[in-house]
Design goal:
Helix content of chain B: 55-70%
CATH class of the largest domain in chain B: Mainly Alpha
Strand content of chain B: 5-15%
Biased composition (Low complexity) (chain A): 15-24
Radius of gyration of chain A: 21 Å
Order of helices and strands of chain B: HEEHHHHEEHHEEHHHHHHHHEEHH
Domain ABC transporter (chain A): 44-298
Number of helices of chain A: 12
Shape of chain A: globular
Largest sheet of chain B: 2 strands, antiparallel
Structural class of chain B: mainly alpha
Distance between the termini of chain B: 56 Å
Order of helices and strands of chain A: HEEEHEEHEHHHHHEHEHEEHH
Strand order of the largest sheet of chain A: 6-7-8-3-9-10
Oligomer: heterodimer
CATH superfamily of the largest domain in chain A: P-loop containing nucleotide triphosphate hydrolases
Helix content of chain A: 25-40%
GO molecular function (chain A): ATP binding; ATP hydrolysis activity; phosphate transmembrane transporter activity
CATH architecture of the largest domain in chain B: Orthogonal Bundle
Largest sheet of chain A: 6 strands, mixed
Distance between the termini of chain A: 12 Å
Protein name (chain A): Phosphate transport ATP-binding protein PstB
Number of helices of chain B: 17
Pfam family, one (chain A): ABC_tran
Shape of chain B: globular
Radius of gyration of chain B: 32 Å
Number of strands of chain A: 10
CATH class of the largest domain in chain A: Alpha Beta
CATH superfamily of the largest domain in chain B: MetI-like
Amino acid sequence: MSDSSTTETAEDEQPTTTTTTAGETVEEVQDEWIEYDFDGPAKFSATDLNVWYGDDHALHDITIDIPENSVTALIGPSGCGKSTFLRCLNRMNDRIKAARVEGSVELDGEEIYQEGVDLVELRKRVGQVFQSPNPFPKSIRDNIAYGPRKHGDINTGLLARLLGGDDREREEELVERCLRGAALWEEVSDRLDDNALGLSGGQQQRLCIARALAVDPEVILMDEPASALDPIATSKIEDLVEDLAEEYTVVIVTHNMQQAARISDQTAVFLTGGHLVEYGDTDQIFENPQSQRVEDYITGKFG
Amino acid sequence: MNTDASRNDLVKRGNSTLGVAAVLLAAGALLGALLGALALFEAFAVTDAVAGLSIARWFGVLLAGLGVALLGVGATSRAGLVRSEPDRTAGPVAGVAFSLVGLVIGGLLASQTLGFGTLWPIGALIVGAVALLLTVYPRGDLGATLPSGLLSLFTGIVVATGVIAPGWSWSPIPGSFTLPGDIAVPLLAIVVGFLVAWMAARAYGGFGTQGKQASAYLLVSASAAGMLALLVVLVSYIVVRGWAPMTEGVKWGLFWANWTYFYVPPIHRYVVIDGPVLWFHWPFVMNGHALLNDVNGIMPAIVGTVWLVLGAIVFAVPLGVGAAVFLTEYAGQSRFTQLVEVSTNGLWSTPSIVYGLFGWAFLVPRLGNGFSILSGQLVLGFMLLPLVIITSREALTSVPNAYRDASAALGVGKWETIKSVVLPAAMPGVTTGIILGIGRIAGETAPILLVAAGSPFPSDAPNVLTSFQLSATPPFVTNDALLQATSALPYQLYAVITAGVNKNAGLAWGTALVLLLVVLSFYAIGIASRIYFRKRLEA
């Protein structure tokens, strides 16, 4: 059994340095992968990101670059901060009163934690799919058209109809495109006006993905999107995620290491206490992890 | 372990003799209680004779028979002749219940029959203690049946022998309270019948845990049935008395008129019709109060109530829902919201006469300097407001946060989210609050009396709809009818009753029935809209 002890350094009174049995510190390991090189530009780059919930220090000095048009998996045990990190990327943490974020996150080189950031625009570019399916209690069509309607991209209101600016045809196209994008069109094309709550759990989750696609995002964040679903629905979501990566940048949090290994291009491992311990190509992380703790976690000895 | 005597059979087959006897016993006891209730509500007179014996005495015979049967059931169970699973004791609840009954009977016997005078507590305590002992000390089956059986037998004998008979009366406080025999007998039948049924239910379950289960079921279902029965009695009382005055003079028919005209009061016009006419005349709800009327009606009061309630809704609902949205969605948990919450609850429990007084002192002098519909609408609106806020807040907080998160993650702003997702999801709850509130304000008398009441029996209804007038100067829209006093159904009812004229009782009952119908139709609208809003949310 490995002993994963944590020692605190007196330098800045923050438990940022973790020692593993192999004697390597997090800093040393980071030296290995902080240079993690990928082709193409970085979509997100976080630097020294810290998050507190009240007095609870949930994320410690996260520094990570996430490449464009690929699937990045965030794995780790419960409470390791992977969901917190995900919510930093579209500033959904702002909705939690006790949360405090320090550090920097850049989206396409632009800082999202600065004065004057338009959260509406940010969240239009960075969509999110939640852990349990949460379609609105509206029709399938209304669910998908909700975002574009609210942003004024599509107008089907009474006034628009009277003035002749009715976008109903465009809405039809959009609904079909998004449902096809979420691999749901075949199943629901004949009942677009039915309430979305009548769909099965897996269908609801794909509807939520379609709803996120409708506002034309660049990034889709997924917070354990398959954890509430059965194996068949899960495999559909996984196929979908791989397809989505051709057009979108996908960041997915998962408990399920097999899932991460199956669908992701690169994997970041968070371990207890809110530390990012290792980050690299998924194949490399699962076959040849640099850190003993990560190897223990992946082989199921710990975590 | 199998030798353990208290171990019961795992599988029980067939109906035990005990079960059958207990069901018959409980049915007889409940029948006695039901007949007692019917007699109490004057469905029949206890003095009537059936088969040569007055009904009062038949009650006595029934109770005595029930008592004997219950004692028999208990005795056969104690003797082990039937299969039962009694506890060691009948339990403290039954003990307390029967010792209280014993206290009452002992006290009455000591003071009224034996003439103990001021020493009556001695008799009360002795009988109470005996009842307690009889219930708690013997084994469960005997403890449950002995006191109730003896009580039923004793009461039955007392009633059957005519000691307590319709002619009998008892005045514990001479001159102010008298209990006549024709009320005492049905009351005894109800109380004793329920006690016997309670214990028969225990016998049905074999006196043990199962027995307590069965008796608890009997008690709670009897509470529910009693509640329902009370409602039915209340409503049917009003319907029976109000139906005849309400429907007096109703005429209707289909006519082919090739040139017929009739007067339509609300628009003061004669309408000419050439064709089929469905003619319908319902004087009680279509007439006002006038000398030449065939039947004097209450149309002005109906219209007054409808306007008062509608005005209160128009005033209170947007304000209340808006306040609830602010408190729930914008203001987080803070001292301020707590203060608002406490004061909202306080406002809701404020007596209506206080609202009325405020309206009388504050609104009436400022709105046309006289009693007016407008003042009434505002005061009723003040009363409706806290309930709308309370129920809307509850409905809004019960909307899942997942909806808000999903909307925010799509980049939709807070107000748009509230408008398009949160409020529609909360609408069924909000509507429920409004329905409850209408039930309260439509029947309010006190505030109307103080701020809106005019003549209780006017000849014409307030013409609110046709009195709107536009003007070039502020306030641009005026409505004289809103500034006039009005009658309203509860106010008219109050006026009829306090007038003390007995021949008008029909008018009062008819008004009450119409008030009930008006409130019910507001309910129907509310419930229909709640169903509509819920349908939109459901799959």
